[in-house]
Amino acid sequence: MKITGAQALIRSLEMEQVETIFGLPGGCILPAYDPLLDSPIRHILVRHEQGAGHMAEGYAHVTGRPGVVLVTSGPAATNMVTPLMDAYMDSIPMVCITGQVPTTAIGTDAFQECDTVGITRSTTKHNELVMTAQDLPMAVRQAFHIATTGRPGPTLIDVPKDVLTNTMDWYWPSDEEVIDSLPGYRPTTKGHPRMIKEAAKLILSSERPVLYVGGGVLKARAAEALRELAELTGIHVVTTLMARGAFPDDHPLCLGMPGMHGNATAVTAMQRSDLLVALGARFDDRITGKIPNFAPDAKVIHVDIDPAEQGKVRKPDVPIVGDCKLVIEELIKAIKDLLQGGTVQADISAWKSRISGWQEQFPLHYEPSEPGEALKPQFCLEQLRDNAPEGTILVSGVGQHQMWSSQYWKFNEPYTWVNSGGLGTMGFCVPAAIGAKVGCPDRTVWAVDGDGCFQMTAQELVTASVERIPIKVAILNNSYLGMVRQWQEMFYDERYSEVYLSPEVPDFVKWAEAMGCVGIRVDSPEEVQPAIDKANSVDDRPVVVDFRVDAREKVFPMVPAGFSNDDLLLPGAQQANRGALK
Amino acid sequence: MSEIHHHILSVLVQNRPGVLARLSGLFARRGYNIFSLAVAPAEQDGFSRITIVVDLEVTSLEQIVKQLFKLVEVVKISELDPRSSVERELLLATIRATGDKRGQVVELVNIFEGKILAVGVEAITVSLDGHPDKLDDFVELLTEYGIVEMQRTGRVALPKLERLAKLDRKVG
Question: pLDDT at residue A52 above 50?
């Protein structure tokens, strides 16, 4: 049957079971928007293409299904560069379809032409310029296949306008045809049995082991398997910024987040360990601190689906390339076999009591405000957390509020935490929260943002209002680019350069109202609870709560950039006892 | 050219638009150095073979190979140790050769088993193919006479038959 390329594109997306597209039409992609009218796919019309990209990421984070973006050529494609890179860094499955000038005009500097595949080559897992309508179904299938298998990531299909208007004979390639068309793409999912056995032995013989859990565990949907492994061996777990929720924070074996702003116990347990079992983690510089000083006595078992992560930063003693879920399940079997065969696990009780000693001495800490003093951001987060309905999804932007969110929230369920980890994209929060709410409409979605971040993409609240996507935004507003301010205070002799925003403009309440949201301002601790109650009770439109918080508050603990994790800076009151972390 | 830090990768790729840009972009982005590069269609339809000589002063070969292998179009990578591979390169050069010098240049070309491709009043153009080391020697000797223009192709290589490549990754 002859249909147009545009019809083939939309039908292909339907065949891939796409339910929602985030996008914004324009000249070259126009033909694709016509058959969309007749499709059951929901299209969410954004106010800026970057918003569409982050929405797709938020959607993918919470559902595990690829987020889909449809935008036009030129400036729309360049506006997608940031979310594509963000998704690439955090291994988020996403498929972006961009319009392109007609094939006959490519290379002529036509109106709204840009070299989209050239520009996005290093910000996607794979991209493709489709030159004939006949190739569209295969290109779509390949894009979804590559985005969702192996180490997930964003893919992009660039579609010239005449490819959309030309006709083609509809066909839908089989799985086999897709795989045959990509002879160079064969992700390894099953771990090497000998390496798994080796790892099992090492785990049972280590006296100070730590499970170092990264975002790969969530991508592999391996939270249950991880819990079984931890409980079988009694080994403590640290969850990186990308893995918060992969292991429940209320579990006795959970140590929380390690790294630059990790808690002292998680950081130190890794430093003093004799075995790090890295599961879907990539030894990011924000975790390791100064690399030569990182976990100096630890052997490393590294489980990762991406072979290039093995040995990129730290040479593993036991490298295992494979899918975290499959490998952890095999690891559990191998450990059980060894235990049944008479192997006795090394005594880790002394290690566990050291860990609990650190936990007692070095809890997260901030000085609560005295009556009449400015509101503390950590207090706002604690109140948000304690009043959040069951199953609430927390989304954050990038900066101090992000670190406090990760520190003070209790993530007891996977896929309830969405943030921009690798790229650190300010402006991620509001659109990502919208995408998360679209993916999980029955859950409460709280977006904790900074006033700097919020101002980058706040216009998407118009999208949320019009499309009836009732997210809740908590701005921890200190009128500063807070994290930069913290670095200038600590490392630039309090010389504050270009970090002061403004306490007066914008008026966030008016701005929220102008965008169709409920706006609430909170200045004092007494107003916090009523504001949160009110926000939680609104379900027909977005809510923005402007928490005016103390600008002097800093994120602790902190490992200054380039320093060893042993040089962790603790909150003032704990510094005197730091010898106990040796 | 010091051989110590150089390694040859023979990369079989799907012959698709942009594949060379993808590969060279990866090298630029990750700070890997390409010493030379040669691309041509491979024995199988739809595939090309790219021979890259990489400079390993700053990066481990293992990382380069793994990152290259992440490119969807890369089907197979063979690491060719110079000691266990056959290598060839082609050189074209125009050399100043006036009067009495001409005889000397022609003699040199003959010794190296090169070919004279064109003869002008003051210069001649020659070609030479062979192991890149031989080309290096030839260039060194020609320099004395004055090289007007020169173009080398970059090396191509295949594993020696008696000793196959150390690292041979094939998928599918």
Answer: yes
Is residue B1 situated within a structural domain?
no
- Gap from B8 CA to chain A (nearest CA, Å): 19
Amino acid identity of residue A70, one-letter, is L
DSSP character for A195? H
Rounded to whole angstroms, the Cα distance separating A224 from A324 reads 11
Supply the range of the domain harboring residue B123. 87-156
Nearest to A122 among B18, B29, B75 (CB): B29
Q: Do A129 and B75 touch (CB under 8 A)?
A: no
A542-564 burial, b if ≥16 CB within 10 A, otherwise e? bbbbbbbbbbebbbbbbbeeeeb
Tell me the pLDDT tens digit for each residue of A267-293. 999 999 999 999 999 999 999 999 999
Cα B93 to Cα A348: distance, rounded to the nearest angstrom: 71
Tokens linked to A277: 């079992």
Please give the CATH number for the structural domain made up of A193-361: 3.40.50.1220
Tell me the angle at which helices A482-491 and A400-408 cross, rounded to the nearest 10 degrees.
Answer: 100
Q: Residue A383 is encoded by which pair of tokens?
A: 């109140």
Give me the architecture of the A2-180 domain, per CATH. Answer: 3-Layer(aba) Sandwich (3.40)
| Cβ–Cβ below 8 Å for B171 and A307 | no
Distance from CA of A117 to the nearest CA of B (A): 9
pLDDT in tens, A512-560: 999 999 999 999 999 999 999 999 999 999 999 999 999 999 999 999 9
Write down the CATH number for the domain with range A377-548. 3.40.50.970
Whether B3 has a pLDDT exceeding 80, the answer reads: no
Task: State whether residue A70 is helix, strand or coil.
Answer: strand
Mutate to test the interface with B, among A115, A121, A157, A185 (most CBs of B within 10 A): A185
C-beta atoms of B63 and A308 within 8 A: yes
Give yes or no: residues B11 and B53 share one domain: yes
Q: What is the mean pLDDT of residues A369-391?
A: 96
Cβ neighbourhood burial of A464 (10 Å; 0-12, 13-18, 19+): buried
| Residue A483: active-site member | yes
| pLDDT the model gives residue B57 | 73
* B149 falls within a domain: yes
Strand ranges (DSSP E) for B15-146? 33-41, 47-55, 74-80, 85-96, 115-119, 123-130
Query: Is there a single domain that holds both residue B70 and residue B135?
Result: no
Catalytic residue among A242, A260, A483, A558: A483
Give the count of domains, chain B.
Answer: 2
Please indicate, yes or no, if residue B151 is contained in any of the structural domains: yes
% chain A with pLDDT above 90:
98
Q: Which of A20-24, B29-33, B147-151 has the highest mean pLDDT?
A: A20-24
B14 closest CA partner among A186, A185, A124, A308: A185
What is the average per-residue pLDDT within B43-70?
90
Residues B57 and B120 in one domain: no
Q: What percent of chain A has pLDDT over 70?
A: 100
Eight-state DSSP code of residue A147: H
The interface pTM score, or ipTM, of the predicted complex is 0.90
CATH, residue B148: 3.30.70.1150
A508 annotated active-site: no
Model pTM score: 0.94
Q: Are residues B14 and B44 in the same domain?
A: yes
